[in-house]
């Protein structure tokens, strides 16, 4: 793979951080070096690109980071990059460093920015899906989703201990933006009595029916997992409404929050990040551009940004069906 | 240790659950059997005592529970037990089962109830301190505190990953009721920039000074750990007030909540619970009553309920001093 | 799904235990009940079947087990079941309880036994792949593999801490019988310098070359992950041979052993086990028999025992290629 | 605390690494800077001291390390330092950097070296006890012991899952050199049937009696925890001898090994390390030298090296008594 036109590759992380981003950075850097290219890290995403905050990365500089949460390149959101002037500034900084190709690790907001940059300046670019939300079409899994779901499940397990000891009803809110992936899978794995997700229209009345079904059901401990994108209210709101309708339950709420974004990545996220990092660089060298690299049915695939941005990664209906059977 | 007057010991958990309660139950049961006594589990604390929900426990029935969070005997708060009639009903149920001594595992609310029962009916009783709050005088450590603090620290570690990636300011609220123990120690261990606890009067202005000290300090990521008993506002309120005073920070809040109550206990809590469980039964057999068993400077001690109820377990001033030195 | 011929389903675990087996048992029991069948648990696999150690399971009896390692039904290997007399005894016990269909959770040894029972007595049976080894064709993943690989990676992470502090060379042996799955994926995720698996013929000389390549390489810390099925020697043997050839390295060995079999299952294994448990019962009710249920490209599939027993689940060559690029 | 004679403090780690060493380094550095001293890190213990491998450390250079296992200063054993010539070379390197006081983090081997250096060259030095073995008199706890014991317990919990599923007898060997601390406490916390430690002379016959007591005892799963310093043989040897005497048991062995040295430290080890780090620097500034700083009954204490080296940290007899009561 001796693409002579590309000598220097820039890599950066953008948008919300996700466990496994460091494993992806490591893979991009080492693959670049493996193919005798130089690799540069751009700090704080588009912000650092505009400010020219760019550092050279060697094989050793990404040693001992595969197991770390967060991103050593840091990440930020940049308003200025949404303007043509901002992107021009960024491009000039890339040129100054001699960077002639880009690998971005982030979510669909990040891809949109990169799409413009590619169109406007013709610089080859490949994106790696890094977000805990698993909300990107074009890949079965995004980097960080496996870890975040396990983090949610570990928290649910702890809450179950106390719920069972007190016969309490818990509403647990998990992340995922507009996607129900984390909620559905942490809900099944956590043995939730109900799972509330944006993709499915469970009415508040359905929830009340479910909770009050069966003689003495209020005496049991129950966990309800609520996706943050829920259309019928978040965990706090739902708990309040249930409490108003019935003084029968001892109700508590936990909003898991940002701890879902951190932590040492699982093997799955590390291996996924490693594979996608290798494939991103090899894609660049083979002439891919304006694409996201993903994994479908265990195979590497490249999809155009157009086919990904603003499309929905649909939830697996079979999972929803199973959740209902098993919560009897 | 052949106290012939005591043949049957009742054990129960009461108040908020804490990791290690099962290890304490196991120790009480096995020590009772070791001294050839019968042991009975009373379900859901004083509620089960009043309802007569009592089961015999054998050495095997507490097998494979030492590692489990929560309490197999469940716990509850009972209004009825606060009345003399309620306590009479409870006492009659104990008599019916032939239970002639009690071991309670819980916090100071639970001890108060037991104190009345002992006074009114003369039944020997020893308490074991089981609460994550470490808010009991008469013992260096309560069962569950070590585990809860580690749970808080693990969550803080995860949040640090994302804080560092985004240069964010996080307010993290931890449990502890009116005690700052979990906050101080998870704050030191989590490398917090500031720790807000009920025992110390840091004003909101002090906090603002600390946050804005030094050129460019707003660019750093920072973690502030807030005890739920904070007198200057909880994490959510403090974050709001800081945001109002300065648009300089990217601020997020996480209220860890009930996940701090669950989880598999640490070795420390299991060993502590084992020692206190053995000592509670041996105390009963040696004639101790109306006391809490505790550990002070690695030695078993018995203190009267009177000396414990409504007294404060003071925070270690040295820890506060150290927290300040290390957050520079 | 109203298969009137099947009224009682027996479920058991067999062979080596794997994390997630309890989640599979729970799914089988609840799905059976959902379709208004009775479900019975057969203790200790074929051993309990021969001894008639069979218990009725209700929806509640599998509550609070989804998060537990091991198997509540226990498991064993049975010599007697390999004889026709043994199997007849087992079948008669099933008949006595009115059990007219079987779901087995285990590895390919277990399937062989079931295959004979089905052939000889015509009792419908479906297998669920439960083994940490991921060595079964007919499914992308077996229950327990995800958890075991994460357990291995967590151990490797801990060993890396001490390896880096001392500039040591560690040989770490992981499980997997004749399969290199755990080794390859924990090796990539653990950032191993080399991965020795049964499927690939790396000679001892290749290993020496790799270890001694580059000036001063002996000064670096390095981790070598060795699958227990390695054809050039296990971790202990390889370490000894390297030490004999060079006094240059500070070498240590860790054989992870049976801790890889236990622990609370990951979300992935719990969801996988839940899906396969539902699909096994639904398969039985739709007339499937003599098959293993699996998951291929995220879809449920049924494959005949014949197509599975004694076939090899091939290792992903792409993973091996990536491991080499990233260990530079 | 304005000791004008001391301007530059050197800090290093020595001997086996232990979780929490980084927290101690951080505390030494930040406390030094707090008192307006300069702090230098000496790499790889006495080896780096002899080679002059010394780096300046600032408050930020120890940021984000409190949670990391291992030691950023690395550690090694040095033969040369045992000679007077070696120590002279080391001292000259310290002088060259203007280092006029030392803080060492390590075990008693490390203290011996420092004792000579102080005697020979008069350089003030304080030691911090950092070893997982908890084998130092003069402190209730050494840094790393709490984490290592929890690591051992987590491994034992996993092994219990598989032991219970198979009714197996497991011999689990834990670290501790000549000390039984990790074994006793992980054994109690892990619910072990027996605990074999160097301090107590349980004969092999006693062990056989214990294992074979009671009808059908061989059918139960059992865990035996063996300290590596066991006088009647390690786990592998004991398992072999038991197997020879009885074909009744299904026996397995796990030697936990070096994973006990790594991992993120618990809150306890981080707080302990922070307190000892602060106290070491403050001790130095107050004129302490040739001492180890420790914690006794929650208070900071300084003890001369003489009183520590070659003395034994005795095991708590009460713990042994409790282990026996609870394993019935």
Automatic annotation (TrEMBL), chains A, B, C, D:
UniProt: Mg(2+) binding residues: 108
Catalysed reactions, semicolon-separated: beta-D-fructose 6-phosphate + ATP = beta-D-fructose 1,6-bisphosphate + ADP + H(+)
Cofactor: Mg(2+)
Residues annotated as domain Phosphofructokinase: 8-283
Gene Ontology CC annotation, any one: 6-phosphofructokinase complex
Positions bound to substrate: 131-133, 168, 175-177, 228, 252, 258-261
A GO BP entry: fructose 1,6-bisphosphate metabolic process
Coarse class of the protein's main subcellular location: cytoplasm
Pathway info: Carbohydrate degradation; glycolysis; D-glyceraldehyde 3-phosphate and glycerone phosphate from D-glucose: step 3/4
Binding site for ATP: 16, 77-78, 107-110
Subcellular location: Cytoplasm
Residues that, per the record, bind ADP: 26-30, 160, 219-221
Keyword Calcium: no
Regulation: Allosterically activated by ADP and other diphosphonucleosides, and allosterically inhibited by phosphoenolpyruvate.
EC number: 2.7.1.11
InterPro entries the UniProt entry points to: ATP_PFK, ATP_PFK_prok-type, PFKA_ATP_prok, Phosphofructokinase_CS, Phosphofructokinase_dom, PKF_sf
GO MF term set: 6-phosphofructokinase activity; AMP binding; ATP binding; fructose-6-phosphate binding; identical protein binding; metal ion binding; monosaccharide binding
Transferase among keywords: yes
Family named by the database record: Belongs to the phosphofructokinase type A (PFKA) family. ATP-dependent PFK group I subfamily. Prokaryotic clade 'B1' sub-subfamily.
Listed HAMAP family: Phosphofructokinase_I_B1 (MF_00339)
Assembly behavior: Homotetramer.
Record function comment: Catalyzes the phosphorylation of D-fructose 6-phosphate to fructose 1,6-bisphosphate by ATP, the first committing step of glycolysis.
Name of the protein in its database record: ATP-dependent 6-phosphofructokinase
The species this protein was found in: Chryseotalea sanaruensis
Taxonomic path: Bacteria, Pseudomonadati, Bacteroidota, Cytophagia, Cytophagales
